[in-house]
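Why do we care about 3D structure at all? Because function follows from shape, and shape follows, mostly, from sequence. That is the central idea of this module. The next example makes it concrete: a single protein chain, its amino acid sequence, and then its structure expressed as tokens.
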Amino acid sequence: MGERQRDVFIRVNGEEVRERIEARQTLVDFLRDHLGLTGTHIGCEQGVCGACTVLVDGEVVRGCLVLAVQCDGAAVQTIEGISDSGLITDLQEAFHKRNALQCGFCTPGMLIGAQDLLSRGSVPSREAIR
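And the structure:
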């Protein structure tokens, strides 16, 4: 049988993290349980709801479908890192202004997804969301 624990090096929100973790631990559980980054939520655990959305090397992924060991050597950005940078302040304001927050559970994932769409040019401009 293979190793149950693995050493990983992941850059999370710009900070280097070296941990020994269970090989079967999901990325979302690693972020929440090991690093205390609770802005990434656990919802359906099937990759459908998007509450666990994060960026891995600039790509949108569902943290519940990715093992943390798969991110060894990668850069992970969570809602905490993106919002602290000020990059999505206008998106946060637009969500608030349009009452798009509802209960707020899936809002971090939706903000990350919206930012990704805007950065890829999939939406004409930031003005389109206001």
